[in-house]
Write a structure and sequence with these properties.
about 100 residues, about 55% helix, 4 helices, mainly alpha
Length: about 100
């Protein structure tokens, strides 16, 4: 099972629904990088200190772990709404009719 790895879930989704009619346009906050290879160096660096980030404010060189995070609730909610709209169109207009046609 792919678990919570969104890139793997998307790959599995595309395996089951390869046609362009099932393609999703992910809004900015939900955009996925389908290959970890693009940022492997950054991922390695992040994971090497992951357990430390929850225990200490700084690394062994005095570098602060804290990073500023900007969260715009309004734009995030708009993007969630757009993604929800796309998913409902695909589910109710494309996937469910196929399921019902197969059951008949």
């Amino acid at each position: 099972m792919p678990g919570h790895n969104l890139a793997r879930l998307l790959k599995l989704y595309r395996t089951h629904y390869p046609s362009n009619e099932f393609h999703l346009n992910f809004p900015g906050h939900f955009a996925l990088v389908e290959s970890d290879d693009l940022f492997q160096g950054e991922l390695d660096q992040f994971h090497s200190t992951l357990d430390q980030r929850h225990r200490y404010p700084e690394d062994h060189k005095g570098q602060n772990f804290a990073t500023p995070e900007v969260f715009d609730l309004r734009s995030f909610l708009e993007e969630i709404g757009e993604l929800d709209r796309q998913l409902k169109i695909i589910e109710f207009a494309k996937i469910r009719p196929r399921l019902h046609a197969g059951a008949a």
